[in-house]
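SEVERITY: medium
COMPONENT: batch folding queue
REPORTER: lab tech (J.R.)

DESCRIPTION
The queue accepted two submissions in a row. Attaching both inputs and their returned structure tokens so the on-call engineer can compare them side by side.

ATTACHMENT 1
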Amino acid sequence: DNIMKHKDVAKEASKKSVKTRIQRGYIKQVDGKTMPQHAKELGFSRSYFGKLVKSYGFEEAIRHDKRVSSLEKAFSEILTSTGLDFSAQVRIDNKVADFVCNDIAFECDGLYWHSDFFVNNNYHVDKMRVYRDNNLRSMFFRSDEIIYKTEIVRSIVRNCLRCNSRRMMARKLKVREISKQDGYAFILQNHLMGKPSSVSSCFGLFNGEELVSVLQMKKHKNNIYEISRFCSKLECSVVGGFSRLLSCFTKKYIPSEVFTFIDLRYGMGDYLEPLGFTKVSCYKSFKWTNGSLVFHRMKFPSSSGYDMGYAKIWDCGQAKYSKKFCV
């Protein structure tokens, strides 16, 4: 008695109705898809996705997929551990910061949605500049770092917010040159970038017999050295550790120049200038990503990574600092 009771007929009628409403402009499409279609692909309910679009705009909403949401949840737990008040989804001019705590804006970047498949190569630089213009320091962490190196990220965040559980003065610690193997082991456990490809010398700071800070150096031609890695033990803040280790290195090896690169996603390099370093350049760089992991840009020279289905994820810039020595 009612033909619409038949599921197939009702489904076809619904499709025709939607098509007609699209043609008449009652339903809007973005990139050839309706909002419910976008919501379904991202795994959101229609109502929740609608709220995201209304609050942040479509471009920001599509970046809040389930992986990003889980990242934000994980990162909020890190901030909660500091005991400090923080805010989520803070609009700053025309940008939205994932979190703001004290004077630091934190970003949790999903590799897939923050790749150049969806954002341009200035996306992160532009955000960083907006935050700086509003007197905020910024820190951009990627999903692979938050997921696979949670404790290291936690320590970095807590150190920047001055919440690390241990604080010691470098002048009260012992310095000695250590083996490359011991240096590698320490860096693997405590540095976000992991161990470098090679080093020529390592120096460590010791609290008794406990290794609490490491500086790794790599020699180039003409007695020029690169600072490959420097970090302190998780949850430790070693005041003056970098300058003391560098001083011991220069006294023994007498370099003609020392240089290093600062990843502006989470570093600033402001501690280098008082030590005689000069900023000589700053360029954006990228890594390749498959959506879950990142790979060095030279793994796929030029743009060959695209042929493998990979995308580029751009950073906030790599700042080079250099200090020359009279020899």
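ATTACHMENT 2
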Amino acid sequence: MKSRLFAAFAVLLLLIALPASAEVRYPLTVKDSVGREVIIAAEPKAILLGTGLDLVALSLIHPDPVSLLAGWGGDMKRDPSGLYAAFKEKFPAIEGVPVIGDGITVSFEAVLSLKADLAILANWQASTEAGQQVITFLEQAGVPVVVVDFNDDALKNTAENMRLLGKVLNREEQANAFADFYEARMRRLADRVAAHPEPGPAVFMDGLPNPEKCCFAFGTGGLGAFIAVTGSRNIAEALPRQGGSVSAEFVVGSDPDFYIATGLPDGAYTSFVAGPGVDPQAARAALARIVEAPHLTNLTAVREGRVYGLWNFFNAVPLNIVAAEAFAHWLRPDVFSGVDPAATLKEINERFAAVPFDGAYWIALKGN
């Protein structure tokens, strides 16, 4: 009996002495989103964010992401995304975080004054000549740089990049939980499309519409990819991947089955409002005014009430799964029965978000 107790006690001591399975061991070598090998010497405590929008990703895996920041790009602070107010309300200390650039470029002088132990840049920053110079400068100063990608092919890359951040920041358990959640919902969409290979409806996606002129159409990249994931057809698929200008005649001649607009909370660049903090009735009223434009009012989509709108920044943050489900729910409700973007956002807020995401992120003209 005594020998059994001793053996059990020895096993218990061994288990206590071992590190938790989710604990990351440093120094750590990772491969970032553009294939660079990066060595992280110790758990990062003072991070530089090249774009403030990547704070959203951090907020899904860390309860106080602002406490990690040594400096950040000023784009979220001055940007029309609408996110800054909610983060400021939850974490007032964000006001004092030094700004190191405008979200496109990074100031060498600002970076020099900060004692950072990690920099996180977006792929679109790192791909520029200025971005490459910043990476070289930071690495020469002993600051490792990790490049993440939440926008180039968002629906493909989001889960992988969340896992990358979780590993780098010693938040693997939280990041893997979010990535698993994300992948399960993406798999559900893919499985439904595979079971229903018949072509979906034709869609016109109008970027930041202006009633006075026509029109920026999303191509097959960016938010345009959210059309394809439902098995539907983008009428602007022949444009360059990032999209481009189309004429009123093109839109009228294509006569899409569905019309989807993108908007911003403060109506910047467009009179359609959508996103954080926006009242649904205000978003719906703005959407109704948009489709009164001469080149839109007689479209089949408008006449038959298949008019929708959503937040323009879904392609820049890991919340994009909510937009993908909204597209599925709108465009092919028979194929995607049971897919509920509101329920998905609610679960994200309850399980992951340090700052709840509230507002009219997506809207239907004829009810939601």
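NOTES FROM REPORTER
The CA atoms of residues 216 and 258 lie 16 Å apart.
No errors were logged for either attachment.
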